[in-house]
Design a protein that fits this description.
Oligomer: single chain
CATH superfamily of the largest domain: Quinolinate phosphoribosyl transferase, N-terminal domain
Shape: elongated
Strand content: 15-25%
Radius of gyration: 22 Å
Largest sheet: 6 strands, parallel
CATH topology of the largest domain: Aldehyde Oxidoreductase, domain 3
Number of domains: 2
Number of helices: 11
Strand order of the largest sheet: 6-11-10-9-8-7
Length: 286
């Protein structure tokens, strides 16, 4: 059974779909500028299609695929047979589509591209989340997303079992190494963030000395950057639960369990949005 479905920003999805369709047909006249379909598909012909998983995966993006078809063919009928966040086996029918053939063929690639991308992210995210099950550590995503697709990508990570870290530079404080270098030190950077009355201040730390400086200065979270597991354990001991801890940098499926078992509260993984392979999903017409 799928976990509780996360909320999808459909307005943002429509923005992405609009740009993708315009890119594919070379403008905004979506139906008449598909020169192949216009030439070889008789006007008025209707098709039915079945969208199916070609391997085991966690589904994400079915409402986005439906919206892509509806934006080209408002009268299209899209019947979801699975739910976002659900793990399905190879061969599972994800959706059935019916409507005017020309328009459905025009929308097909855009719908599949987004569904495959999002399901790929959700599937890889789920693999990482499963590796740390039972440790008490929470999987986070990052800002390492394909430009323009952040909200859809982070929706997909939620489908896969991760929690969103921050959507962008506007909704979360993360004082990184270059901020620290410009400010002249960890304590000064944290002080300036505090003076600006910013909540949930997180500081990236490369050394145990920086960890102590950040905690003493009043950081709410310390990001333990590219530390090996022994150093992570020592960092957790330095923190002594005075704030929360996040491990980040170079995390793989092979290493994430050991990292989580060091006692950190969170582990963030850029790979789940930056390097996830697209899921293999077919759309066959019947």
């Amino acid at each position: 059974m799928p976990r509780d479905q996360p909320e999808l920003d459909l307005i943002d999805a429509r923005r992405v779909i609009t740009a993708a369709l315009a890119e594919d047909v070379g403008g905004s006249d979506w139906t008449s500028r598909d020169i192949t379909s216009a030439a070889v598909i008789p006007a008025g012909l209707r098709f039915k299609g079945v969208m199916a998983a070609r391997h085991s995966m966690v589904v994400s993006g079915l409402p986005v695929a439906a919206e892509a078809f509806h934006m080209v063919v408002p009268e299209a009928r899209f019947f979801a047979r699975a739910a976002d966040g659900e793990r399905v086996a190879a061969g599972t029918v994800l959706a059935e589509i019916e409507g005017p053939a020309r328009g459905l063929l025009t929308a097909e690639r855009t719908a599949l591209n987004l569904l495959q991308l999002m399901s790929g992210i959700a599937t890889l995210t789920s693999e990482y989340a499963q590796r740390i099950a039972g440790t008490g550590c929470t999987l986070l995503d990052t800002r390492k997303t394909i430009p323009g697709l952040r909200k859809l990508s982070k929706y997909a990570t939620r489908c896969g079992g991760a929690k969103n870290h921050r959507m962008g530079l506007y909704d979360g404080v993360l004082i990184k190494d270059n901020h620290i270098a410009v400010c002249g030190g960890v304590a000064e950077a944290v002080k300036r963030a505090r003076d600006a009355k910013l909540p949930n201040i997180e500081v990236e730390c490369d050394t145990l000395e920086q960890v102590e400086q950040a905690v003493t200065a009043g950081a709410d979270i310390v990001l333990l950057d590219n530390m090996d597991t022994d150093t992570l354990r020592r960092a957790v001991a330095v923190v002594r639960r005075r704030c929360r801890t996040e491990a980040s940098g170079g995390v793989t499926l092979d290493t994430i369990r050991a990292i989580a078992e060091t006692g950190v509260d969170f582990v963030s993984v850029g790979r789940i949005t930056q390097s996830a392979p697209a899921a293999d999903i077919g759309l066959d017409w019947s």
